[in-house]
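Annual report, structural modelling task.

Input specification for the phosphoenolpyruvate complex:
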Amino acid sequence: MIDLQFQPLFDRPQQRPLRIAGPCSAESEEQVLRAARALAQQDIDLFRAGIWKPRTRPNSFEGVGTVGLKWLRRVKAETGLKVTTEVAKRDHVFEALKYGVDVLWIGARTTVNPFAVQEIADALDGVDIPVLIKNPINPDLGLWIGAIERIYKAGITRIGVVHRGFSSHRPSRYRNEPHWNLAIELMRQLPGMTYLCDNSHICGNRELLTEVAQKAMDLNFTGLMTEVHPDPDAAWSDAKQQITPSRYAALLAELTIRDQTSDDPVFLHNIEDLRGEIDQLDEELLNLLGQRMQVAEKIGEYKKQNNISILQPSRWNELLEEAFTRGAQHGLSKGFIGKLLSAVHQESISHQEVVMNRKTVRVRP
Ligand code: PEP
Ligand code: MN
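The model returned the following structure:
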């Protein structure tokens, strides 16, 4: 665990998940105000709109720029909503602060670049404003934590992270693969921070938005960042993943929000029993794995005496195929069995290597 002390982004009397919503990009004053007025009816906590847009290819719409800050200022004045926009360099920070933007966010293409993050951190030194940090586009937890540390070192403790998924070269049902395990590991290392899930950029389409939002709620994320546009099909960026304000209301209504824990003694007693069982089973698993490694070492000795190499691909394939079939009988997925056994196999190889390459010490007569 890293010892950083975070504060909530802002005071929120409600216990419900934090809601950040708004269009991918500010396109016109009219579009921004239409979106904000509709979302103000839905009691959102923060209105988002990108005005400097990092686009993959040139000649795409790169945002309206500073004029959009005037529109956000009007949103605040008219609806009372707090507003947030993406900043990627020093001048963006200064401009956004000048126009009273309430929360800044650092995009995925900026988090990957320590120089850019440091430039933003330097511009923010001594400024008390909440900052949201999206995950880097590649699944590198160290880079994400590094960006958090840079911003924290500038004196900012109101930090939230936004899980927006990771690029992948593999075909996928997601635009950006969620790799939930990375967010879970971040929660373990940095508890007490605000955790947001950007279901729009994970999904890349409207159909999966609710499923991903529910998953985030089940993992105890603090809230959601969702792209909402008054006329999504006509959006100038990310049209396929944006939804109308009424569809957003339906999404929120569909979510099941569960308590993180309970003080009901019966519940606590039962859960403790079940956790005891899990601990017992984990213990047995570790014992078995230890025993397995001892056998691997014996095999290593034996192969060494007979001058046989460690890796035997045909044996490994047979073992894997067999495990897929048997695992399926226990309701274990092929993906899980593959990952588990290859880790176990790798560990066995390392144990065998130690045995086989151990130098025999010859004692001189
Ligand atoms: C966005 O929020 O519109 C955006 C550009 O996101 P990301 O940095 O996650 O790609
Ligand atoms: Mn977008």
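Residues 24, 227, 237-238 surround manganese (II) ion (ligand 2) (CB under 6 Å).
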